[in-house]
Structure formats: C-alpha cells, structure tokens
C-alpha cells in the first residue's frame, strides 16, 4: 500500500513537472516573438527619424538652391578674366560672377533679344547675372543678360520740325534754337495728330511743333516711341524773366 502511494506521488510529480516545463517551453517562443516585434518597431522608429532628418536637410538645401536660382545681381563690368566676370553694383560693392559651358548669354536691346557669347562682353557693359542671390558676393550664373545702353536712357524733347527725311525728323529746340535733335521713327512709333486718325510721318510738316519721347543712344539720336503734333501756337516753356516793382509811400 505504501509502495502504491509512493508510486502515485512520484507519478503525479512527474506529470506536474512536465506540464510546467511544457508551459515554459510553449511561452518562450511567444516572448521571443514579442521581443522581435518590439525590436523591429524600435528600428523602424530610428529609421523614420533618420529619414525625416535627411528630408529636412535636403529641403533646406533645395530652398537655398532655389533662392539662388531666383536671385540676380545687376552691375557694370569692371574686369573679365577667362570665364570670370567682376561687376560693380550701384552700392559700389564688387560681385564675382563665374560662368561655365552651361551659362547662357543674352543681349536685350531695341532690336529685341538675341543670344550672344562671353566674348561679346566688355568692360563698361551693364549686365544682370541670374542665379546669384543679392546677399552673395560670388556665384555661378545660369544666365547673363547684357543691356544696351540705349534702352536704359529715356528721353523726351519738344521742338519745331526743321526737316523731314524718309524715317526721321530734324527738330530745333523751341527756345534754344541752336540745339538740334534727330528723331528716328520705326514701324512701332505712334504718331498723334489732332483730327487725323492713324497719322503717319507723311502727315507731319516742316514748321510743326512736336513732342517726341523714346530712347536716346550714345550719339544723341532719339528713337521715338511716340510723337505728338502740338496744335495751335504753343511756343514751349520760356525762362522766367526777373521783374522788379517799386512802390512809393505817401508822405504827408
């Protein structure tokens, strides 16, 4: 009987021990799985933070590049050395403009826009370098635009028509008659004459008083954008003459 009880006790112990070991073995893979999942989550978080930081840095770099591309500097060429141009701005600051085989050169003037080369630039030319921010002292230009002096100078004149040629007028100043002006016309010149619609150069006569506005070149020739024939006997604005008046006081 005692042997039976002892045997039963041992058997029960073995069964219970096996159940505990089995339960432990069964729980271990689940714990490992949870640990692997947690590690994966941490890795993804780190990767996400790293990617976000890289995107932020890239965005900042892109913004700086776009800022430079949108910017431009304007000035007068002071020197050219190889593919490098130095200009002086209106604020008397010197900017260094680098160019390469991708840089495009354009000239803008009365004849419109045309492509030029670096060799067409010279000291004294006024240019705008696109691709360099105003707060930068140097940079690589994407475009270099050369401006003709003539389009930078606007001019207007009042005068009496002295002579007329095929496409130009010769005017004398309304007051200082020793001053002579040459006014060229183009197909874009608009001529206004009272009571005449679609007036042309042929409608202007010697002796007419006109006002012409447009651009003036280095030789003083005005290319008119508009010409207005002044009706009546307008004689211009004369210099004021100094006058003096005296008053006498009554004495008793």
From TrEMBL:
The keyword Endoplasmic reticulum does not apply. Keywords: Coiled coil, Signal. Residues 30-61 form a coiled coil. The keyword Signal applies. InterPro entries: DUF5666 (IPR043724). It comes from the Bacteria. Residues 1-23 form the signal peptide. Pfam families: DUF5666 (PF18914). Residues 159-227 form the DUF5666 domain. This is DUF5666 domain-containing protein. It comes from Candidatus Woykebacteria bacterium RBG_16_39_9b.
